[in-house]
Known about the structure:
By secondary structure, this protein is of the alpha+beta class. Helix content is 37%, strand content 30%.
Amino acid sequence: MVDFTASWCGPCHVITPVLVELAKKLPDVIFLKVDVDVDELTIGSLKTLLNSTEAQDFGVEAMPTFIFMKDGTIVDKVVDARNDELQQKITLHMQKA
């Protein structure tokens, strides 16, 4: 699951503790966070340049947006900090895995 977020986004800050707990409880789910305002992303020794076009490529129009992917293909999306819907989608896609 990719969480498109921004440092200025209030709802993003509200949902972050929920995501942290979900990541602890669900080690088989990969949780990624992308700050749409950051131009560079570092994961270990991998450095990738980002800009707003990546967010647009994923159809991100509001923060937070959660994109669910399977084998590199977008399979679902949740827009806004909707805790219940987010957890339902995670459960749904875990069952399909």
